[in-house]
């Protein structure tokens, strides 16, 4: 049995640069209920999926409770347990409830901040091959640097949920870069 619904399409959002959080012209993607995590090892299920699709440097934890972004790498977050309300896109972005099996894919520069999490909330984070993740806080100086680094971030070759032919590949390749 597959851990992913083969025909699932992600929700897409594009967040504007707010002057402190650069966000991205590429769409932020959210797969709702994409991964079957109804088992005794949901973290391993998500890690196996992301790894099989070429995304690595994985970690398990939550989402920081302050606004931050990554200016040198794209990020995927897969919810293994619990639930959270996360604001994506910085202070003027959108709050979304994320629950087990949901996957959020953040193009470089996308602001994110946890505003609420259940005590058992756990996400698996991963990155496509490339530079290591760095946490960037929204300051005028960091924003100016990010505007130079974000356009240099390579597009991933695969969608972390659906692989080489997944929606991310199609949506991001047809985007502004």
From TrEMBL:
Q: What is this protein called?
A: Cupin type-1 domain-containing protein
Q: Where is the composition biased (Basic and acidic residues)?
A: 156-167
Q: Which domain of life is it from?
A: Bacteria
Q: Taxonomy-wise, where does this protein's organism fall, top ranks first?
A: Bacteria, Pseudomonadati, Pseudomonadota, Alphaproteobacteria, Hyphomicrobiales
Which residues belong to any copy of the Cupin type-1 domain?
A: 66-142
Spell out the InterPro entries in the cross-references. Answer: Cupin_1 (IPR006045), RmlC-like_jellyroll (IPR014710), RmlC_Cupin_sf (IPR011051), UCP019307_cupin (IPR014500), YjiB-like (IPR047121)
Report the source organism: Bradyrhizobium jicamae
- CDD domains this protein is in? cupin_YjlB-like
Indicate the secretion signal residues. none
Q: Locate the region Disordered.
A: 156-177
């Amino acid at each position: 049995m597959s851990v992913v619904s083969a025909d699932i399409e992600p929700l897409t959002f594009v967040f504007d640069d707010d002057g402190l959080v650069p966000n991205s012209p590429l769409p932020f993607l959210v797969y709702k209920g994409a991964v079957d995590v109804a088992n005794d090892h949901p973290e391993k299920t998500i890690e196996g999926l992301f790894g099989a699709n070429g995304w690595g440097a994985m970690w398990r934890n939550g989402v920081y409770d302050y606004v931050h972004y990554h200016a040198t790498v794209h990020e995927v977050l897969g919810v293994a347990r619990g639930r959270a309300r996360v604001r994506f896109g910085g202070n003027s972005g959108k709050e979304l409830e994320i629950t087990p099996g949901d996957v959020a894919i953040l193009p470089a520069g996308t602001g994110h901040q946890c505003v609420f999490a259940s005590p058992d909330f756990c996400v698996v984070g991963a990155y496509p091959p490339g530079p290591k993740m760095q946490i960037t806080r929204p300051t005028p100086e960091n924003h100016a640097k990010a505007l130079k680094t974000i356009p240099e971030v390579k597009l991933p070759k695969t969608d972390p949920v659906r692989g080489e032919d997944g929606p991310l590949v199609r949506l991001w390749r047809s985007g502004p870069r």
